[in-house]
Each structure stands twice: as structure tokens, then as C-alpha cells.
Design goal:
By secondary structure, this protein is an alpha+beta fold. It is built from four helices and five strands, in the order βααβββαβα. The chain has one domain: Gcn5-related N-acetyltransferase (GNAT) (Aminopeptidase, 3-Layer(aba) Sandwich). Keywords: Acyltransferase, Transferase.
Length: about 120
């Protein structure tokens, strides 16, 4: 289930974000977190099962949601969580077009090949 990011989840969110290739540097990671926390058009969601195991971050405009970040805890990968996050995001924002950024495009392509997203 997708839940909105809250400051209480900052450490787990930073941990999940750090799996993204461009978020390895601590300063860059902190800047990204600040962006999600302070800018209204940058929204971060967490995937919660028993624990929080995934994260998806989007840049929102009037008609589109561009997926900037998508990450799943390595011990929960290959279970369809990433695809489920994108699917639920599309359902939550049915009026918007959900599309990948250059960083998340390869994930979307794999989902399209499997006809999941």
C-alpha cells in the first residue's frame, strides 16, 4: 500500500533512496530529501507491507507525474513491488499521465515488456 512520506520516515526513505545510482553521495541525497520535503510539486510515497520496503518519488505538474525515483529494499526485490507502486500511483492519479524520468525509464521499459504497467 502506498502511503505519503512523513518526516518520521526520513531515515528509511533516505536508505531506500540511496539505492538509486545518482543518490549515492550523502550531500546529493540530503538535497533530494529536502526537495521532497519543501517543494509541493515533488511528492514522495512509501510502500508499506508489514514494514516499509519501497519508495517512489514523483515530480507533479498539472497533467503529468514524472517518476524521479523508484527503489525497493534489496531483500524484497523481484516480488513485483516496484510494478505495484507504479500501478497504484496510476490509480491514485487517474487524471494524470504517469511517465518515467531518464533515470527510471529502463524500469518502465521492463514493466512494459511484461505488460504490467
Amino acid at each position: 500500500m502506498l502511503i505519503r512520506y512523513k518526516k518520521a520516515f526520513e531515515k528509511i526513505a533516505m536508505g531506500l533512496l540511496s539505492f538509486m545510482p545518482n543518490e549515492k553521495d550523502l550531500k546529493k541525497l540530503q538535497q533530494t530529501m529536502k526537495q521532497y520535503e519543501t517543494e509541493d510539486n515533488w511528492q514522495l510515497f512509501l510502500w508499506k507491507e508489514e514494514d516499509i520496503v519501497g519508495l517512489i518519488g514523483v515530480y507533479k505538474t498539472d497533467s503529468t507525474l514524472e517518476v524521479q525515483h523508484i527503489s525497493v529494499n534489496p531483500s524484497h526485490r523481484h516480488e513485483g513491488i516496484g510494478k505495484a507502486m507504479v500501478k497504484q500511483l496510476k490509480e491514485m492519479y487517474a487524471e494524470s499521465i504517469v511517465k518515467p524520468s531518464s533515470e527510471t525509464a529502463s524500469f518502465f521499459e521492463r514493466c512494459d515488456e511484461e505488460n504490467i504497467v
